[in-house]
Design brief:
Oligomer: heterodimer
Number of strands of chain B: 12
Strand content of chain B: 15-25%
Largest sheet of chain B: 6 strands, mixed
CATH architecture of the largest domain in chain B: 3-Layer(aba) Sandwich
Number of helices of chain A: 14
Number of domains of chain A: 1
Largest interface: A-B, 24 and 37 residues
Number of helices of chain B: 10
Number of strands of chain A: 0
Number of domains of chain B: 2
Helix content of chain B: 25-40%
Radius of gyration of chain A: 22 Å
Radius of gyration of chain B: 19 Å
Largest sheet of chain A: none
CATH topology of the largest domain in chain B: Rossmann fold
CATH superfamily of the largest domain in chain B: P-loop containing nucleotide triphosphate hydrolases
């Protein structure tokens, strides 16, 4: 096979795996949107906050150390211990559950029955609050996150694919980052687990019930507020997974919050209410923008990755406003 | 009046639910004006009245969607405090809706399984890992739900998404979901509205069977006078939010105020 073709395949594979990362963020949006009709603008910041907390716990950082030092004139920064990755992930998950409780208690509770736009505005407020809160709690510097996931190009894949092109050509096997492979595996496991949970457990059915019809859910004894806490906890957990993957890849930094924006075109493509949609949408966007950059980028001066996803989403909005897998919007007249 | 046995052999017990002097206002509009009545254990109690009489509002008050400004509700001989609908459901009050409120995205079986929600007690973590207790609980209620499915003769549509079902069957699935909660008190909001004669007969039979077999107390709203007079033990008649009649079907039928409300009064 010609090296050019194989390079294109490599770009495609890498695009698919970049797409998985988008899907992970989009997944969190879909979960909350389905259950409560809220477009949670804070999902990206939740991923950032989860990653910050994880790094902080692993490194034994003292939370609010700047504040404490400023107020008491002390100079504490670290506890001096290191928590193993798994333990720290479990603790961070607990923090995200507490966060879900607080969101319900302090915000959602007061907004029951309000217009979606008001809830949306509330989540924008929440996003900026959390960004500041994360900064205050853990500091604003870029931190490396290493939970022990394999990193770097896989030599095994490279060696075992080198034969695809003739010997002596410019092709030396596919370059695939092991981190991307783990992210893909984690995403697959996560989606399967979420699907099984929602299909085959009483709470899963309750989640779907609330997503479908609030009144009917109440009438069979489902408490909306309890379900919202559960939904936000699950979304927090998904944010944690996304935070771990993005953080491992590019360090834990505040620009992580902007990856949330990339989830928007993913959702427009896949549909705001569909979990498979979030996955497929992420894959299409990831693959599409890498291939576009590879083929068309050089002709128009590059940097197409900044806008390709949005243009693709726009085209989809025109022809299929509900997204690939979203529910048809039919208004009864 | 203590418990007695009806001519067809059912036992009617003590008062299960009593609404006392209920007044419900929306802004300046009084939807329900100072209404009182009781429902006895094992009874089929109908609420009738012209459109806008406050019948559905009354059901919504009983199941907690609306909170009346005045009056008390007594359930099981105890005064009920203000509660959320989900808490009231947990006390054993289930209902169906006038405009079917099923979970459209789910199949028949899952819809009915949600009805068991109040009885399932395993924790979220146990369910998440499908651990012993959660698994056994799931199977136990699945068996119960299958029994209800047989009872209401909807075996053929067990796995069909309910959105795709014809209207009459949707109504039946909704009844099944309410029954899955094993309610003490079942509220049916126009269970036969929009049905053809055959479907109505089926539904009548199911309502009577539910009452006879499970001993469920039923409050139902219905427009079809034939149906109401046939199946109910006692009837409350509402008109413009007021109660204008209350009694066994024969009493109500001969009540002049009821006749006027339904047929209109000549103006002269």
């Amino acid at each position: 096979m010609s090296p050019d073709f194989l390079y294109a395949v490599e770009v495609l594979l890498n695009g698919l795996m970049a797409g998985v990362m988008y899907s992970l963020v989009a997944l969190g949006f879909v979960l909350i949107f389905k259950a409560s009709g809220v477009f949670n603008y804070a999902q990206g910041v939740m991923a950032l906050f989860a990653a910050l907390t994880l790094v902080g716990i692993m490194n034994g950082q003292v939370p609010f150390s700047h504040l404490i030092n400023a107020v008491f004139g002390t100079s504490v920064h670290e506890f001096g211990w290191h928590v193993p990755a798994l333990g720290a992930i479990a603790l961070t998950a607990v923090v995200m559950v507490i966060f879900a409780f607080l969101v319900e208690k302090l915000i959602l509770k007061y907004l029951i029955g309000q217009e979606p736009i008001i809830l949306f505005m509330a989540t924008i407020g929440l996003a900026y609050f959390m960004e500041g809160f994360g900064d205050l709690m853990w500091g604003a510097d870029i931190k490396a996150l290493d939970v022990g996931l394999p990193k770097g190009g896989s030599i095994w894949i490279e060696e075992n694919t080198a034969w695809l092109a003739a010997e002596g050509s410019r092709f030396f096997g596919f370059f695939i980052d092991k981190l991307d492979v783990s992210a893909t595996l984690v995403a697959v496991v996560l989606v399967i687990a979420l699907t099984l949970f929602s299909q085959y457990t009483a709470t899963g059915r309750a989640l779907r019930a609330v997503a479908d019809d609030h009144q009917a859910a109440l009438s069979v004894g489902i408490s909306l507020r309890a379900i919202w806490v559960i939904t936000w906890s699950i979304a927090g957990f998904v944010a944690l997974v996304a935070g771990i993957m993005w953080g491992s890849k590019s360090g834990v930094q505040f620009s992580l919050a902007f990856i949330a924006l990339k989830a928007l075109p993913v959702l427009m493509l896949g549909g705001f209410t569909s979990i498979p949609g979030a996955i497929v949408g992420g894959l299409i966007i990831g693959m599409g923008e890498k291939l576009f950059e590879f083929f068309v980028g050089p002709l128009i001066g590059g940097a197409t990755e900044n806008w390709f996803a949005y243009v693709l989403a726009l085209i989809f909005l025109v022809f299929r406003p509900q997204g690939l897998f979203g529910e048809r919007i039919i208004e009864r007249v | 009046m203590s418990s007695y046995v009806t001519p067809d052999g059912r036992t009617i017990g003590d008062v299960l639910l009593e609404v006392k002097n209920i007044t419900l206002r929306f802004g300046g509009v009084e939807a329900i004006k100072n209404i009182s009545f009781d429902v006895r254990e094992g009874e089929i109690r109908a609420i009738i009245g012209p459109n806008g009489a406050g019948k559905s509002s009354m059901l919504n008050v009983i199941n907690g969607f609306y909170h009346p400004q005045e009056g008390e509700i007594w359930f099981h001989g105890k005064k009920r405090r203000a509660m959320k609908p989900s808490q009231i459901a947990r006390q054993g009050i289930a209902r169906t809706f006038q405009n079917i409120a099923l979970f459209k995205g789910m199949n028949t079986l899952d819809n009915i399984m949600t009805g068991c929600f109040t009885h399932m007690h395993t924790s979220l973590i146990e369910q998440a890992i499908w651990w012993g207790r959660a698994e056994r609980e799931e199977y136990r209620y699945r068996e119960k739900v299958e029994h209800i499915i047989d009872f209401l003769e909807i075996q053929a549509i067990r796995k069909t998404p309910v959105g795709a079902l014809p209207y009459g069957l949707q109504k039946r699935v909704e009844l099944a979901r309410a029954l899955a909660a094993e309610p003490k008190l079942l509220l049916l909001d126009e269970p036969m509205a929009g049905m053809n004669v055959e479907e109505k007969e089926d539904m009548c039979r199911f309502v009577l069977d539910v009452n006879a077999e499970f001993g469920t107390t039923i409050v139902l709203i219905e427009h079809d006078m034939g149906v109401v007079m046939d199946i109910s033990d006692r009837v409350v008649v509402l008109d413009y939010g007021r109660k204008i009649g209350d009694g066994v079907p024969d009493e109500v039928r001969s009540n002049q105020e009821v006749i006027d409300a339904y047929l209109g009064v000549p103006h002269d």
